[in-house]
Q: What sequence folds into this?
């Protein structure tokens, strides 16, 4: 079976690299994007199985990226897991409303990162999302 | 001087028409006074004392005074306490509630020092007695009232700006620290997990030390963010009926491993408890914090006991540890923000000193209380979390 492909959208070069290596070590194939424009373009070309998305990005933000995905037909069906350093009390409800498959705060423990990604790839709902109004 | 009087039954008339334009720098005052003779006298005193540079409007009732204030830009209010539609300090309170920051000079027929003191402590700028008025004292009271209120206003604004700047700074720092922290965490864990090749024991030990410190730094960043959110009221609680014994057991079980590592005897003695009204996520945060402190400050082979009881409409949850305890002088201070006890080098790092401060804010947000027990008979330290069994 082919490896599942994850698009990592993260503007910090070091974290992008670190996350890529972590996901590769866990058996995923990884493609990268460093800003909002590349996030949309790369998703369209690569058609990943999951997108790990930062919120604070150059040339847009995670929310505008998600809006673009949902306007691009099939891309809107790809599960998105948000990984952000922003205050969740400001960003989480908005991201959940946009239907994200997971919402994680930097820095995230690897167990949690990998289990969230695996669950999202299986298409199961996020148990943490139930609490969110 | 222009004088406007309110002689109509319900409303008011703006002006006698003699001088509709306002003199530059003239003080614009509103006199709320039902007695025509007193009003005339006060008007005359102001005119004399301010040599004409005053624009005085007068109304007879509190209601018409409040509606005048809503339409006109008034510098200060002179308020009689015996009005047809309101009396005593209630009148002042109404003006204050609807126009916070408006300088008010109370003009009273009675020389009651207690009422005067209360008026000033409620925020009135001055309290003058009708029988003692002279043009000089009245004008002084009015001018000082406006000036003092100006100082207060500027002071409040500076304070408000400072708090907003501090909150923005903390939020920014907390946000900006997360990405590099996440990158360090990722690189260190990649090596520690041997994805880059096998490790020898020494290397593993070093990396475990690094990972421990990354986690500590990460929880400090969390605390910073929590404090910022408390400051800007972004944090809220959603109380609901909660089976508190289950919640406590869950939290305690999360600490069993940590306690075992330090060979601490972690004991839980819970009787049957009624449901409490609380936000389970917030209470979990608080209990985690108390238990974390207990484990941190209890020496090896020490003891931690979690007990509970009911008193009136509250359930008390007590976390006691056999650690070195908190001295009586410091007992209240542990709940202050950025509180840290001076401790020796070996006792480990203290963190930012925000944990208990955040706990108290979170508990009070949902109608509960948290305190450190003062009983001198208890060695170690004992914290009590009290939560209501009825809807707050």
A:
């Amino acid at each position: 079976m082919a490896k599942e492909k994850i698009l990592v959208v993260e503007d910090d070069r070091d974290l992008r690299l670190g996350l890529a290596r972590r996901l590769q070590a866990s058996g995923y194939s990884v493609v990268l994007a460093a800003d909002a424009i590349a996030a949309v373009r790369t998703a369209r070309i690569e058609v990943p199985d999951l997108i790990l998305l930062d919120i604070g990005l150059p040339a847009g933000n995670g929310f505008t990226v998600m809006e673009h995905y949902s306007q691009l037909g099939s891309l809107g069906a790809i599960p998105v897991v948000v990984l952000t350093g922003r205050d969740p009390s400001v960003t989480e409800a908005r991201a959940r409303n946009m239907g994200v498959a997971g919402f994680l705060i930097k820095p995230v423990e690897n167990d949690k990162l990998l289990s969230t990604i695996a669950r999202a790839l299986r298409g199961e709902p996020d148990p943490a999302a139930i609490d969110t109004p | 001087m222009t004088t406007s009087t309110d002689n109509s039954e319900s409303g008011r008339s703006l002006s006698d028409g003699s001088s509709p334009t306002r003199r530059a720098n003239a003080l614009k005052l509103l006199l709320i006074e039902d007695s025509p003779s007193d009003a005339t006298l006060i008007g005359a005193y102001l005119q004399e004392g301010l040599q004409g540079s005053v624009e005085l409007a007068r109304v007879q009732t509190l209601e018409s005074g409040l509606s005048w204030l809503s339409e006109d830009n008034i510098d200060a209010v002179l308020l009689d306490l015996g009005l047809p539609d309101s009396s005593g300090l209630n009148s002042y309170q109404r003006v204050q509630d609807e126009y916070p920051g408006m300088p008010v000079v109370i003009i009273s027929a009675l020389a009651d020092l207690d009422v005067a003191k209360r008026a000033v402590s409620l925020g009135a700028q001055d309290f003058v007695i009708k029988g003692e008025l002279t043009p000089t004292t009245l004008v002084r009271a009015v001018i000082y009232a406006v000036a003092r209120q100006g100082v207060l206003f500027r002071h409040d604004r500076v304070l408000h700006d400072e708090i907003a700047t501090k909150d923005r700074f903390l939020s920014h720092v907390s946000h900006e620290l997360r990405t590099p922290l996440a990158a360090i965490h990722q690189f260190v864990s990649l090596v520690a997990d041997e994805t880059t090749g096998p490790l020898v024991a020494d290397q593993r030990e070093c990396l475990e030390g690094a990972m421990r410190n990354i986690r500590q730094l990460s929880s400090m960043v969390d605390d910073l963010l929590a404090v910022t959110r408390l400051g800007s009221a972004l944090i809220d609680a959603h109380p609901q009926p909660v089976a508190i014994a289950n919640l406590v057991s869950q939290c305690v079980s999360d600490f069993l491993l940590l306690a075992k590592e330090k060979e601490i005897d972690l004991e839980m003695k819970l009787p049957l408890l009624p449901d409490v009204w609380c936000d389970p996520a917030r209470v979990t945060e608080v209990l985690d914090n108390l238990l974390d402190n207990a484990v941190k400050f209890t020496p090896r082979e020490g003891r931690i006991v979690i007990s509970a009881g009911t008193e009136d409409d509250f359930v008390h949850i007590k976390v006691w540890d056999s650690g070195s305890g908190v001295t009586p002088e410091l007992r209240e201070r542990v709940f202050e923000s950025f509180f840290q006890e001076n401790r020796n080098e070996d006792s480990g790092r203290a963190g930012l000193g925000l944990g208990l401060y955040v706990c108290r804010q979170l508990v009070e947000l949902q109608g509960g209380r948290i305190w450190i027990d003062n009983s001198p008979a208890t060695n170690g330290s004992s914290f009590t979390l009290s939560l209501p069994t009825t809807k707050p």
